[in-house]
Write a structure and sequence with these properties.
This protein is an alpha+beta fold. The chain has nine helices and 15 strands. The chain folds into three domains: about 60 residues, Structural Genomics Hypothetical 15.5 Kd Protein In mrcA-pckA Intergenic Region, Chain A (Roll); about 80 residues, no CATH class; about 70 residues, 2-Layer Sandwich (Alpha-Beta Plaits), CATH 3.30.70.100. The protein is elongated.
Length: about 230
């Protein structure tokens, strides 16, 4: 009963937008006046409108949700198999936090926090750890060449064999995105079979089985916001 009452309790539209989009009420008012907000399919431009949490509020064509969700998924072979997660993504308009998460297996962070998504996507200094599987073994000389090319782009990186006896699996710790990784191995004529993102900023797939997901902790969320 209490849940139904809170869902149907009137709330000012600009207050809802400000809380959900992490912006000021003045910024929310601007979005409303600009005709970018709709309630249950109807464009709203006047001030002072009240809504219920059960209403469907949209900014342009994206649903604005009252609850911000942060999920990490250990995605195997870039296939989203789990029905529960698919439904969660669709119902809450969740997006991948960065482009390499769509292009690799391993970590994929989903959220409906558009402010954080925008911040992360333009940020350059985010540490990543990739596990690269090559078609053939790579020599120490070629590995050194890859290291030097990465260093030319950004001097904080580390590239090495994951296991000395297996020279087709390479570990890379760097600030660069997945496009740079493919470009470098193409230059040294080493074909990549797969790339797995095993760490993004402070988020890892440790203790998270393949194709499973979990909600980020408050500490993890706060660390992402401080990047």
């Amino acid at each position: 009963m209490e849940n139904n009452q809170s869902i149907n309790k009137p709330l000012r539209l600009n207050q809802f937008i400000a809380k959900s989009r992490n912006c000021t009420r003045r910024e929310a008012d601007f979005l409303i006046k600009s005709g970018l907000i709709s309630v249950n399919g109807k464009s709203i431009t006047q001030m002072g409108v009240k809504i219920k949490l059960s209403d469907i509020i949209k900014y342009k064509n994206s649903i604005i949700t009252s609850k911000l969700i942060y999920i990490v998924h250990n995605n195997h072979h870039k296939r989203l198999k789990q029905k529960e997660l698919k439904n969660l993504i669709q119902e809450n308009s969740l997006q991948s936090m960065s482009s390499e998460m769509k292009q690799s297996s391993g970590i994929n962070i989903y959220t409906n926090d558009e402010h954080l998504i925008k911040k992360i996507r333009i940020k350059k200094k985010i540490i990543r750890v990739f596990q690269v599987l090559l078609e053939k073994e790579i020599s120490c000389i070629d590995l050194q060449s890859a290291q030097e090319m990465l260093t030319d782009i950004n001097n904080k990186n580390n590239i090495s064999y994951i296991k000395e006896e297996n020279k087709i699996e390479i570990g890379i710790k760097c600030y660069n995105d997945i496009g740079i990784i493919y470009s470098i191995f193409e230059k040294i004529k080493s074909k990549i079979i797969s790339v797995e993102l095993s760490m993004f900023a402070n988020i890892t797939k440790k203790d998270l089985p393949r194709n499973e997901y979990r909600y980020l902790s408050i500490e993890e969320i706060n660390l992402l916001k401080r990047i």
